[in-house]
Amino acid sequence: MLAQGKNSLQIRGCYRVKKIGIILAGGKGKRIANFANPKVMLRVKNKTLVENHIQGLLEVFNVDVVILVINSEKKELTDHARSLKTKYGEKLIIVEGIGFKKNATKYGIDLIHAYKNLNNGDLYFYVMGDHFIDYDDLKPLKNEINEKINEFYSNVHEKMLIFIDTAPKCAKEASQSKVLIRNDEIMDHGKELENWNALETGLIIIKPEVLSKLEAKLDELRDFDTTNIVNMVKKELNDAVTFFDIKGTCWFGVNTFDDWMDGINNYVKYRLTLKETITICKAGKAGIFAHLLYKYIAAIITFIILKLNPRTRAESVSIATYVMAIPATIIAFFYPLLGAIIYLFLEILDSVDGTIARLKNTCNIGGGLLDSGAGVLRHTLIPLAIFIHYKLYILALAIALLQAMKYRLRWHMAEAGAHIRGFVARMLEKRKTKIIFGLTGDVIVTLILGALVLEYFGIIVTIPPLLPFYWKTISMSPIQLTAYFFAAIYAIMGFLDVIRLPKAALRIYRENIRRVRKNI
Questions:
Q1: pLDDT tens-digit profile of 36-88?
Q2: What is the architecture of the domain spanning 272-519?
Q3: Which CATH superfamily is 15-162+201-246 part of?
């Protein structure tokens, strides 16, 4: 038996109602699989839809326990569920099964009944895992919600409580379940309603007798959703379905990719905060200067861009950095300091497109290629234009060749890593920090910009003798020193990659030999 939670609902000061939260996350989610598999792994406020519901049910509705029903075929979700179990402990119960023959609602109810020891609650809070509800918006309504739940529990003729929205802001209306209300009573419910005055938010509360009736009806129903439960309560149990109006709280359901984009764009428009933007911007890996400073600037720019136009896509920013790299190179050749400032701006925009992609869960291979290509373009052309402006022709040529070799060798190393089982995973495990050390783009642009500022003030760098047999003091301009530094670092990096390739090749060879022997 489930323990009675200390936060359970008090009824008439004597009995504490046992409340069980149930998150239905057992569907396949094929319609948005390219961006999240399954779709309940989509993120808002830097939390997955699943975790958002767990936290909301515990904090806003004070349920005694949350049952997360998942499809065990979805490895990404099962791994995530295990991490959530570690975080929430006994407050979270994971129920796994294979739900490919049923939709998420039917599958979830079926599995709950397979675990009879869980079927002992007084109220069941069902929430659709592929819906987002901003529970922070519900916290000011907490007292009203508890009063409504108290009233619902006490009324023997009310068997189902639906949370609806008569003033939806974020949801795409066409694909959501509609509700028709007259005289404070739900008259009709369904996705195809022509006459309606509210949308269902994907959160319902039912009593145990409804759950028992559902178990008996499951095998008779092919498709199954909240509409079936509403009709069953009204027609077969001959009882009332009541509602609570959340009146404009930010929420949306995700049936298709268009639903997700409409919902998240509206969320960005109405609810996105600068603090949240900074958190998501800092989540991506970056060089030390970007991590400490530039990402804060990027977050502010991201926030302003999205508030002005919530529909801005990450790919649009990547294309802009691609296109701007050419005129920036021309400007850098004639006006190096101005070109370096534009170069820095483009580097900051590189964090902007990544932040938008993470905010909207649209990270994909195509966007990564655009971002990578724009980076190669600006990191190659703009520094060369500046070095050529200062007549450092030999160094510029050497840097161009070493830069080309670096990108080619790094591509080979990436290809090699993709073929070695566990190689990439082990590399990522070793580098848990969000900071990437090395000659990253932010370091390159900072060094060049700093050198040009020193050059502008006419400062000369004096280097004392470095070797016992070389006693001369060297004097050179800051930009010349920077060019020598880049050439030396690129040469060292290229040499290290060259000597690592044979090692990677041998590892791939051994992996292939092992696979062949296992299959014989």
A1: 668 888 999 889 999 999 999 999 999 999 989 887 777 888 899 999 999 99
A2: Up-down Bundle (1.20)
A3: Spore Coat Polysaccharide Biosynthesis Protein SpsA; Chain A (3.90.550.10)
